[in-house]
Design goal:
Organism: Streptomyces galilaeus
Structural class: alpha/beta
Number of helices: 15
Strand order of the largest sheet: 1-2-4-3
GO molecular function, one term: dipeptidase activity
EC number: 3.4.13.19
CATH class: Alpha Beta
Pfam families: Peptidase_M19 (PF01244)
CATH superfamily: Metal-dependent hydrolases
Helix content: 40-55%
Number of domains: 1
Keywords: Dipeptidase, Hydrolase, Protease
Radius of gyration: 19 Å
Order of helices and strands: HHEHHEHEHEEHEEEHEHEHEHHEHHH
CATH architecture: Alpha-Beta Barrel
Strand content: 5-15%
Largest sheet: 4 strands, parallel
Length: about 375
Amino acid sequence: MADLQHDLHTTPEVGEPADPFPPFADVPDAAVAPLSDPDADPLDRAHTLLAAHPVVDGHNALPRALRRLPFYDLQLGESGVGTDLPRLREGHVGALFWSLHPPAGLPSGTAVAATLEQVDLVRSVIRAHPEGLRPARGAGQVIDARNCGRVAVVLGPAPATALDDSLGILRVLHSLGLRVLTLAGTTWASEAGLTRFGEEVVREMNRLGVLADLSGASDATIARTLTLSRTPVLCTRSAARALRPHPDNLSDELLAALGTAGGLCMVPLAADQTGPTLRDVADHLDHVREIAGPGCVGLSGTHDSGAAHPQDLTDAAGYPHLIAELLRRGWPETDIALLTWGNIQRVLRTAEFAAQTAQQRREQSTATITELDG
């Protein structure tokens, strides 16, 4: 673990302050003080571990799903969706990244409005459930929510089309709480990779502290963003292409590059990407951990997104069963703590620190797509 920490901790440039949030600072040394009884039932051990290191779910589409319900109560439980507060508590979910991706088939030019409407809906949902949900804009607020017994809600990922090719709109969305943007589906982040304007978008995201989500992006866009970004990137719903071919899954080459860059591959609980069983998901987690390293793997429920889910992982309550399977496979407690909680905390804190540094050196960009891409 010490070697991995050293590899991922970037030495600051001359004149740059040292990073006050070194990788994995949130994870205790479980090798010295095990959190669970190694001889206990794996499912009991899983509950014990998750009570200390809850799940941060990297992609949950509940806001979109709630639009089709005339009435809902997430506090008591809601059968019409796969995510509610009783099941979040049962699954030991401490934070959710709420996807702002609109449903497919929207008319051209409506992505900005659709995204803002979903931001408004998220705010309404949180206001209606103050005893269970709390908005969070960074690592510290995620921890605060957990300490208060609430589930932290982080806005994003949002689609890149929501920017309407405007860095001003990116800044407005950031001011509303957006913290993750998916770089795919635009002329400046395409199969050919990032254009000059696309590169400027990434720089401005770094300056603001908005994380790049590369799930669904082309290999060329992924490779260029990994090189360009000064902060770690996310793949909020990507598994291993070597185990299951899927356009959103990553090749071993990209997984290795992601690990070298200190990024995070959040393996989705989606049957089309991982397979129909819980063991299939565990196989992908094993593979990503082996190729990218234990500091670069996370979880993504993809609940309420319309995706089919593996058996025993159909809703937010299923995480303890997955963690029990990893324990049976010999995963150390330190690696599980990174998987569920520590890795995303590292990424959030690194992005916040990098943004503070960048804002001291760089004014907000006024570039336009016309100026840079013609």
